[in-house]
Design a protein that fits this description.
Layout: H1 16-34, E1 42-46, H2 66-72, E2 80-84, E3 90-94, H3 100-105, E4 117-120, H4 124-131, E5 139-142, E6 146-147, E7 152-153, E8 166-168, H5 172-181, H6 185-208, H7 215-224, E9 245-250, E10 253-254, E11 257-258, E12 261-266, H8 273-292, H9 299-316, H10 324-329, H11 333-336, E13 342-344, E14 379-389, E15 404-413, E16 418-420, H12 428-435, H13 444-447, E17 460-464
Helix pairs in contact: 1-2, 1-5, 6-7, 8-9
Length: 466
């Protein structure tokens, strides 16, 4: 039986998306003014549509398009939204649905979304022409731009009658993406709850992992531990054996805003000397990166710091030989950490904005996988990821086939440093104690930890705050 959570989901602030729209309006008006362009026209977005599973009548679970969710918070499919740049008025356009829709799925209540007015989708052209105060055709700023994580383009809105408008496909995407990089206090409260409930679920799964179980059973248990949550998938349906390390990459989402947490621990509850050596190498990197985090610090520099600490730890363990400087020049760190340090976190697991316009990815091994090279800003939420893959080369042959270690925390950049939003065991002694049945958080007075000692974490999701 899954343990009942002690946490209560916080209410979603009704002004959350009003605040997000105001953030966009301020940024877009500033951008237009600096470009000597008139402050009129409409931000116009199309929400997501329901999808059937191939050619069946089975409807897949609907999840709103993320930019639309950020601005309007609408949970249902088939909507459009508009914001008048001149007046700040906001509009939702709801689909006309047959009467039987409410019988099966309940009534849609668009008034809860705190916009100026709600109309039907077949009224878009008439309403926007009536609201427009400029000359000529009304101008629509449509969302169209490249996602630097997916390498896919967002789809601009389409509707019958769009030919009666002028359209701009280049202005909105970079401005709106930049708005999503930093989070308001309202957004951070939802991300914190997603972290709290996910941390609680990870601890419960940690207590239940045993030999003979599979990753499917871990996911199922994680899913039933928190309420009203969506679990992020994990990789393989591997049957665990004595001596294995379990690596669980799971996180919950609450009203669009998510978390991303990975824990690694031995199935039998005790780290072997080799497992401890590798795990601590990445925990040390995690701690060093955390200690440097503050506004103005380069994400690229933190990634290289993580590589350096890992190499130093593995050299102390006699897995590597040579000088650390030579290893860094030869990019040896990319062998152990082929991915980037982490990513922005928010409505999407990999939130957009990693590479603003005018920035380019490195071509070097390891660095080319970085999801961003930004400098940290206060209010940025990040997921930080420290991962080790064991390779079969002579100096580390005994690790062949052992799997890997990954530690992920969700971290908020603050004015003077950081706040770790994730609350799971990271130290070896903490993990082994929890797996042996100790309560979490541990009683520091009885566990032998020094007063004031902070819990270490690895692999970060980083958040920025407005």
């Amino acid at each position: 039986m899954a343990s009942k959570s002690s946490l209560t989901p916080p209410p979603v602030p009704p002004e959350l998306h009003v605040t997000n729209r105001e953030t966009l309006l301020n940024s877009l008006r500033r951008h237009l003014s600096e470009s000597s362009r008139p402050l009129h026209g409409f931000v116009f977005l199309q929400g997501g549509e329901e999808q059937n599973r191939y050619d069946t009548d089975h409807t897949e679970l609907f999840r709103q398009e993320s930019y639309f969710a950020y601005l309007f918070g609408v949970r249902e499919p088939g909507f459009y939204g508009a914001i008048d740049i001149a007046t700040g008025k906001s509009f939702l356009f709801a689909p006309r649905l047959p009467a039987e829709y409410a019988v099966w799925l309940g009534e849609i209540e668009p008034e809860r979304y705190m916009v100026s007015t709600v109309y039907y989708t077949n009224e878009i052209t008439t309403v926007l022409h009536d609201e427009y105060k400029g000359s000529g055709k009304p101008l629509l700023f449509l969302l169209h731009g490249l996602g630097t994580d997916s390498d896919l383009f967002s789809k601009p809105a389409e509707f019958q009658g769009i030919d009666k408008f002028d359209t701009d496909l280049t202005t909105l995407h970079p401005v709106l993406t930049e708005c999503r990089v930093t989070k308001s206090d309202l957004e951070l409260s939802l991300i914190q709850f997603a972290n709290d409930i996910s941390s609680e679920a990870h601890v419960e799964v940690m207590r239940k992992v045993m030999e003979g179980s599979t990753s499917i059973s871990w996911k199922a248990y994680f899913f039933t531990t928190p309420t009203c949550m969506v679990a992020v998938d994990i990789a393989h349906n591997h049957i665990l054996e004595d001596g294995d390390l379990a690596l669980l990459d799971m996180g919950a989402e609450y009203t669009f805003y998510g978390s991303d947490i990975t824990c690694s621990y031995p199935v039998n509850g005790k780290f072997s000397p080799d497992q401890a050596l590798v795990y601590n190498a990445f925990l040390d990197a995690h701690n060093e990166v955390m200690s440097t985090m503050k506004p103005g610090v380069s994400w690229l520099d933190m990634h290289k710091l993580a590589e350096k600490v890992i190499l130093e730890s593995l050299k102390r363990g006699s897995i590597l030989v040579g000088t650390i400087d030579d290893m860094m020049v030869e990019r040896l760190g990319a062998v152990f950490m082929p991915h980037g340090l982490g990513h922005l976190l928010g409505i999407d697991n990999h939130d957009p904005g990693g590479y603003p316009e005018g920035t380019e990815r490195s071509k070097e091994p390891g660095l080319k996988s970085l999801r961003t090279t930004r400098e940290l800003q206060e209010g940025m939420p990040w997921e930080i990821q420290i991962l080790f893959k064991f390779f079969n080369y002579e100096a580390a042959n005994r690790f062949k086939g052992s799997g890997g270690v990954q530690i992920e925390s969700d971290v908020l950049v603050t004015a003077n440093g950081y706040k770790n939003m994730t609350k799971v065991p990271w130290e070896l002694s903490e993990i082994e104690a929890v797996m042996a049945g100790a309560p979490w958080p541990l009683d520091k007075s009885s566990s032998g930890e020094k007063a004031g000692q902070t819990t270490a974490t690895s692999d970060f999701d980083v958040l920025s705050k407005i």
